[in-house]
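Thread: Newbie trying to understand structure tokens

Hi all, I'm a second-year student working on a class project, and my supervisor (Dr. K.) asked me to get a predicted structure for one chain before our next meeting. I've only ever worked with sequences, so writing a 3D structure as a token string is new to me. If someone could post the tokens and maybe explain what I'm looking at, I'd be very grateful. Here's the chain:
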Amino acid sequence: MPKFFPFSLKPKRYLTGLDGLRAVAVIAIIIYHLNPLWLPGGFLGVDTFFVISGYLITSLLIHEYQSKGTIDLGAFWIRRIKRLIPAVFFLISVVILYTLFFEPQIIKTIKHDSIAAFFYVSNWWYIFEETSYFEAGEPKPLMHLWSLAIEEQFYIIWPFVFLVLLKVKKLHKYIPYIIIGVTMVSLGLMIYFMVPNMDNSRVYFGTDTRAHTILLGVLLAFVWPPFNLKAETPKRYQRIIDITGVTSLIILILFMIFTKDYSNWLYAGGLFLVTLLTLPAIAASVHPSTKLGHALSNPIMLWIGTRSYSLYLWHYPIIVFMNMHYVAGQIPLHIIVLQVVLTCIAAELSFRFVETPIRKQGFNFFKPSFNTSRAFIVKSSTSVILITGLLITLFGFFDHLHEDVNKQSTFNTENGTLFTSTPNEIAKDIKKHHKEFIDEKERIAKEKAEKEEREEKEKKAQELADEFLQESSPLFIGDSLLVNIGSQIQSRIPNAVINGEVGRQMYEAVDLSKNKYQHFNKKDENIILELGTNGDFSKEQLEEFIKVFDEANIYLVTTRVPRDWQNSVNKKMIAAEKEYKNVTVINWYNASEGHVEYFEPDGIHLNHDGVESMVDLIVRDILDNQNF
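---
Reply by user tm_fold:
Sure, no problem. This is what the structure looks like when written as tokens:
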């Protein structure tokens, strides 16, 4: 028996407490995907999965090396394949068939994402595509498989590296230190690639930048081996472990409640800190004598935890497909309940009829037998249908059904009657009430004159407004929403200078203004800023933009986006209006309240009615500020 590890070999046991923690993680993730405003930090459940994977896999590898003196890599990888791949294969096949029948306009997206998922490189595929995890865009029902890609890459690389380190005598003593070193490198890469106040999806998706979370779990396996923990522990130590573990779990939940997915500190080392602070929860959950471990092992948490993989796989495509037919952030409650119910049903079917049988039987699951011929027919028929749909889609037979929903990424112009009495009634009143009639006649004549004067003023104002709109050249700077409404603005204000770009952030708008549009900083020039769709910005950044155009009239368009930065963006704009005399807020958030009919399913971009409504609002507010 190898003497490297400072603890004795003991039998493996089922770690039910870890299933309870998995339940906490997957519940948080599902709530976050149902509506990010409900649990802004629910995405941290992915990090909990990462650290649990690093801890459990390393613990199993250590146990195998202790008992056999080596690690059977082939057997390990086969176990992982049987555990993970059938469920993913089943999910992708069903998603492809559903897309073909009901959502063919995104079939190429599904095809590309499926190929990446099959090879477990989804995270790098989304980095290559510059896909945002946090911004609304084209529906991607398989985008959640990015995290499984990272885990599978870990399962492929780490056991081999670990075995090599164990076999090399000069290295095996330093394994924990090597892991710490690689962890610090990964953390350094996260901090290096992180850009403040910007979409940090590159950091979020990267195997290199996320490895430290898994490696912290690996390190925990060396200092807290789960199969060597004593069941009979002095009560004072049990209390210390429980208190530490419960405190750690509470900290994790608080992070999930209050953390924002765009927070700069997260990508400047914050994810490392969150993982580090939650390690005691894992340590306490696997201890055989702790109350936390027993509490997490209750039947409900066990049911969710044992199916956490299935729940994770199925919840996201169900939510994405259903949300395509509603406005994000304004999903009816009964639809949300239906999404949860369908997720549980799909997860149970997958767990019971795909994952468990194949994990136990392997390819024997597909072998026919005399007593199960009917089951064989069902399994074979289902497999043929799924595989056929999968292959013909992956080979591009249905690519022509795809519709590009992101056709344009930029828009740049440079590249009642007042008198109700009838004549007969008046004629009768002449004889009976001559004076009253004269007064009424005078009143009507006065009102008629006032009406004509008002109509003349309105006509002149409209002529001045039309002339202003035809001759003025206001500057519009914005993101994808400005791209969305750019054509309508141009039709209303032909000479408008419009510069919209998908994904634009405030710091980019500041740089653009300084480098290209400073000549607009003149009295009576109008600058319209539409930003906030893609994330928050700081008060200082907004003030920097305002100072670039301190002589001009600045209009800030508030945002409506189903993300937790919405209120922060709008509050900064409203505060700026109070602080700066040349700033006016165009309150799209208020104007669009209750108008679900304005929005596309992402809850941000606008259909024809929404475009007209928003442009009307902008034009009206600009005209109200003119002295006609």
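A couple of things are worth pointing out once you decode it. The first strand starts at residue 410 and ends at 412. The chain has a mean pLDDT of 85. Feel free to ask follow-ups in this thread.
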